[in-house]
Amino acid sequence: MKLERVLQYTKTLLSLSIEKGEVAVDGTAGNGHDTLFLAELVGENGHVYSFDIQQQAVDATEQKLKEHDLLSRATVILDGHEHISKYVHSEIAGAVFNLGYLPGANHQIVTRGNTTIQALKQILTQLKIGGIIVLVVYYGHDGGTEERDAVIDFVSGLSQKHVHVLQYKFLNQKNNPPFIIALEKIKQLPEESY
Ligand SMILES: C[S@@+](CC[C@H](N)C(=O)[O-])C[C@H]1O[C@@H](n2cnc3c(N)ncnc32)[C@H](O)[C@@H]1O
Known about the structure:
By secondary structure, the protein is an alpha/beta fold. The protein is about 35% helix and about 25% strand. The chain has one domain: 3-Layer(aba) Sandwich (Rossmann fold), CATH 3.40.50.150. The structure holds S-adenosylmethionine.
């Protein structure tokens, strides 16, 4: 028996929810690792919408897709994930966010609670029943604990009739290791509920 580590469990959750031909979202493209994984999951008839506010991340993600000959399966958008509903109009099968900063880039450019929550609300509205949103929460940087607490506060308030909210976290690891928050949509949420 080996408990899946955070990054492996993220992939397991996404692959259980997203099927070939469906639409997936990467809320934080970064170096494109998750976008590439999603592009493989959705297959040739599906599509991935990937967001980042840094040109460097958009370029790195497009380059990674090109190297694997999968560029046509994804649209990489230079804009904040809080504008997802402007770009994605179809049902979403699954989404992933890696919170924090882009490794190797400016550590001041980080995800923020307010915009992360705006993105979650938009995706929850468009998520299929049985679809999943996986957040990998890194919080060791400046502003990280504020974002972590804001996101936990928001997801903890979601009605259990509509969304199952999971936290997956190793409690005895040192140095602020990342943990997972996963949201599984069970039933369409009334707009006024968030
Ligand atoms: C931890 S990194 C993502 C790592 C990425 N998943 C990978 O596989 O390399 C977080 C990314 O979120 C981006 N970001 C910050 N605020 C954002 C926002 N409002 N919308 C979209 N991306 C944002 C940063 O530019 C950074 O590239």
